[in-house]
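Entry 12.
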Amino acid sequence: MKEDLPPRKKGGIRKSFNDLISRASEYWEVMIVYVQKNLQEILRNILWTTLRVFLSLFLIFFGLGYLSYSAFLFAQKMITGGDPVVASALVGSLFILLASLLLIPRTKK
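Predicted 3D structure (tokens):
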């Protein structure tokens, strides 16, 4: 019965455990390098995307400001005959009406 077993190696369980620990540490070192590389790319992409979104929103609001000012000047010159208070109330009411129309939920048919 003892003849069927392979001969014991020196070191035994301790050597196997040390090999396991060294292989696991090598694996985690490689994974850390991989995560660092990917994390840098992900953070760079997030930064550029955030910058583009905020710049786009700034330009959109800037354009909307000029558009509302041009609507005010048109109302002041053409509709109210030069009265800025009435033109401001008219343009403000128009924008509030437009915003409330855009907020009405649409029903599917």
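Annotation: The radius of gyration is 36 Å. The mean pLDDT is 85.
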